[in-house]
Design a protein that fits this description.
Number of strands: 11
Mean pLDDT: 94
Structural class: alpha/beta
Strand content: 15-25%
Low-confidence stretches: none
Helix content: 40-55%
CATH superfamily of the largest domain: Vaccinia Virus protein VP39
CATH architecture of the largest domain: 3-Layer(aba) Sandwich
Distance between the termini: 66 Å
Number of domains: 2
Largest sheet: 7 strands, mixed
């Protein structure tokens, strides 16, 4: 082997570097995460590979012959490994825990960090022109709603095994708490959600409409999805507050004539389809309408639509709490 080894017990790092074929073997022990990582990485050609080759060539020389900068780099490799591998260890721990704690295979559900919930609440207070304390109280309602949580759990428990095996019975609302708070704040007459999956958002939005109705502000929900099996969580005491139209979302939207107070776009995630949903409903939006986009982290179509229709735009990224998915999605808002 033309390379070198570093075994630093203080930093819990062992590096074995092979300059012959660009291979780096790393052992990193992280008791704080309960993770021991053993990795073998082959570096492709490029600056990192060239740097590795230079360090291997220097390591083959007596220390007295090495230049000071190269020697300092070699000595700091173990400490720098802890910087780069510590977050990896955290991810490995979270990913492994998720394998056994969750059943999901798509559309991950998760809680948000407390800080992220606070940031989202502040943004919604700005969008809806409501006091922050009210928004935070609304966002807290779903997790305190035992009847709602029991409905989700019992519905999933009653599913055929094949479907129950890919759904989590315990609801984790994530950024949907923001959707819920917008509905509670604006007291809409019509809420539309495009794209439902199992209907976690649908039942949550109808729970918000149910509370609004009890306070004297009735409204209705319309969900659209091309999958005839989507939205199965919308049932029980929440069914009277909404319905689902199956088929192409845009085809359904073209049949509407009532003013749309809130749109939540979460269907086909292609940029063109997303934009077509906005433009299809544009004649039905009014000054108080709020459009929420679930695609704003990957396209600029909601920003484009907001600019074209003289609306403000805001995006709040979600930050999952103790989940392998590091976030990046969130809520885009277009509003006046």
């Amino acid at each position: 082997m033309r390379g070198f080894e570093i075994d630093n017990k203080e930093n819990a790092v062992r590096l074995q570097v092979d300059g012959q074929d660009g291979v780096v073997r790393v052992v990193y022990d992280c008791p704080a995460e309960g993770v021991n990582i053993q990795a073998r990485v082959t570096l492709p050609s490029g600056s990192a590979r060239q740097s590795l080759d230079n360090l291997c060539a220097a390591a083959a020389q007596p220390e007295s012959s090495r230049d000071a900068l190269t020697q300092a780099r070699i000595l700091r490799l173990s400490k720098r490994t802890t910087y780069s591998f510590r977050p990896v260890a955290s991810l490995v721990r979270r990913a492994t825990a998720w394998l056994f704690a969750s059943n999901e295979i798509t559309n991950w559900s998760y809680d948000l960090t407390a800080r992220n919930e606070g940031h989202m609440a502040a943004a919604i207070a700005l969008v809806t022109k409501q006091p922050l304390k009210h928004v935070r109280a609304w966002m807290a309602e779903p997790n305190a709603d035992e009847a709602l949580k029991a409905h989700v759990m019992s519905t999933i428990a009653a599913l055929p095994v094949g479907r129950a095996a890919i759904a989590d019975a315990v609801p984790r609302w994530g950024r949907r708490l923001g959707w819920y708070a917008v509905v509670r704040a604006l007291k809409p007459k019509l809420v539309i959600e495009t794209g439902l999956d199992k209907g976690l958002g649908a039942v949550l939005l109808c729970a918000a409409l149910k509370r609004n109705a009890a306070e004297g502000h009735p409204g209705r929900y319309l969900g659209t999805d091309i999958n005839p099996n989507a939205g199965y969580l919308l049932g029980g005491p929440y069914a009277p507050f909404g319905k689902i139209a199956y088929g192409d979302s845009i085809a359904t939207l073209k049949t509407l004539t009532d003013a749309v107070d809130i749109l939540i776009n979460d269907s086909d995630h292609s940029a063109d389809y997303e934009y077509n949903e906005y433009t299809t409903l544009a004649p039905l939006f009014h000054d108080g309408s709020v459009i929420l986009g679930d695609n704003a982290h990957v396209t600029d179509k909601l920003l484009q639509f907001a600019t074209e229709t003289d609306r403000k735009f805001l995006f709040v990224q979600d930050v999952p709490d103790d989940h392998f998915y590091s976030g990046g999605s969130g809520i885009g808002f277009a509003f006046r």
